[in-house]
Structure formats: C-alpha cells, structure tokens
Amino acid sequence: EDKVVQSPLSLVVHEGDTVTLNCSYEVTNFRSLLWYKQEKKAPTFLFMLTSSGIEKKSGRLSSILDKKELFSILNITATQTGDSAVYLCAYMGGATNKLIFGTGTLLAVQP
Amino acid sequence: DVKVTQSSRYLVKRTGEKVFLECVQDMDHENMFWYRQDPGLGLRLIYFSYDVKMKEKGDIPEGYSVSREKKERFSLILESASTNQTSMYLCASSLSGSYGGGQFFGPGTRLTVL
Q1: In order along chain A (111 residues), what is the average pLDDT of each group of 10 residues?
Q2: What is the DSSP letter of A25?
Q3: For B14-68, what is each residue's pLDDT tens digit?
Q4: Shortest CA distance to B85 belongs to which of B73, B74, B76?
Q5: Buried b (16+ CB within 10 A) or exposed e, B11-27
C-alpha cells in the first residue's frame, strides 16, 4: 500500500533556528512530491518536486527530493514565529492527479 | 490568484440530515477534489473529478456522493449525515496535464453532526 511518512510529528524551536522536516514515501508510479503549509486554515502550496537532486527554493524555505532513497526534506532557515504551522508532504502517483498526504509535522516557533 | 471558495465555513447538522457542501473555483481547472481532515489521520481523499460529470472514488467514499454538473463547481453530498462524519472538509482544484501542478485548496468547512 502506498504511504507517506513524515517526521518528526512535532517540533518546537526558537526564532532564528534552522529546521529540517522529513518526508519518506513508499509509492508505485511516482510522479511528483508536494509540500504544503497549513496554518489555521486550508493548506497553501509550497513546492512541487519531480526531479531528484534539484533544490527548490523560496526565500528561507528550500526542499530537495531523493528519488533513489525515496525521501524529501524541507528546510527552513532563520525561523520566525510566522513559520509556525503544520507542514504537509504529499505524493502524486499513478495516472491521475490524486495526492496522498502524510499526517504532517507540527512546527512551533517560539519568540 | 487561484480562488477556491466553499459555501460554508461552519455547519452544524443533525444525524440523518442530507448535507450539501459546495465548492467553486474560478481558474478553469479540470480537476477538483474533496478531502476530509481529522486529527492524527491527515488529509484523506473522498472523491475527485477530472471533468464535468466525471467522478472517481478516493480512499474513503463510503457515505458520500458527489456531483459535477459544471466545470467550476463540485458538490459533496452526505445522503444521511452521521456523527462519524464530523470533520473538516476541504475542497481543492488543479490543472490537468502530465503533473497537474499543485492543488489549490478552499478555506474548508468544519462540519459538526449532532
């Protein structure tokens, strides 16, 4: 059965710290892996990764995919309290555009 | 900007009632999705649609049905609401094509079934 596992489940850091969130997957017919940020509302799209080894970057956030080892990481540098959220990882596989989500990592950034 | 709207932010219904959740997107996306999100279980796909009048079951379709009569609108129907359908319901849309790009989510409807 296809699945996505995120770790850690939750994380508490202080402003200015750097964090790394992990996502591993066991899927068939992999097409892409996506990261979302969810605050107290709907998830917002961050990155879509399809090629191994190519880093996607947006400000202080970056992500990379390793298709050989079947994992992705999301890095956040110089964290701010506004980064506090649940970060969701999802893969897209098969012939459709369905996404299978992990349960998320809850990040709390303290002042 | 992609805009996905849902008809209600909060909804309270009684067991056995028929419930309609509406979702509208304004970016001419082919694909539309309904998820429910529960603590510890994450986002789970209920149904999705890749074209008007087309629908496919997701991972947890039992107790739900959907309707897509127009491209921009995707409705989720609970024929006879039950307490275990209390949840946050999220609608999403995306383009079609090889990878479909990111899915864009609506604000969610928090449904409570008493």
Answers
A1: 88 97 87 89 87 87 91 96 95 76 94 94
A2: E
A3: 999 999 999 999 988 888 999 999 988 888 999 999 889 999 999 899 999 999 9
A4: B76
A5: bebeeeeebebbbbbee
Which residues, other chains included, contact A57 with Cβ-Cβ below 8 Å and sequence gap of 6+? none
Q: Does A103 touch chain B (CB under 8 A)?
A: yes
Q: 55-84 in A: which are within 8 Å (CB) of B?
A: none
For strands B10-13 and B109-113, give the pairing. parallel
Question: A95 at the B interface (CB within 8 A)?
Answer: no
Please answer whether residues A13 and A109 qualify as being in contact, where contact means their C-beta atoms are separated by less than 8 angstroms. yes
A97 interaction partners in chain B (CB closer than 8 Å): 31, 48, 50, 94, 96, 99-100, 103
CA-closest candidate to residue B32, choices B43, B19, B45, B20 = B45
Distance CA A76, CA A68 (A): 23
The answer on pLDDT for B2 being more than 70 is no
The answer to whether the CB atoms of B108 and A41 lie below 8 A apart is yes
Structure token pair of residue A4: 């996505």
B39 DSSP assignment: T
Could you tell me the strand order of the sheet in which B19-25 lies? B4-6, B19-25, B73-78, B65-70
Say if residues A8 and A105 touch (Cβ distance below 8 Å): yes
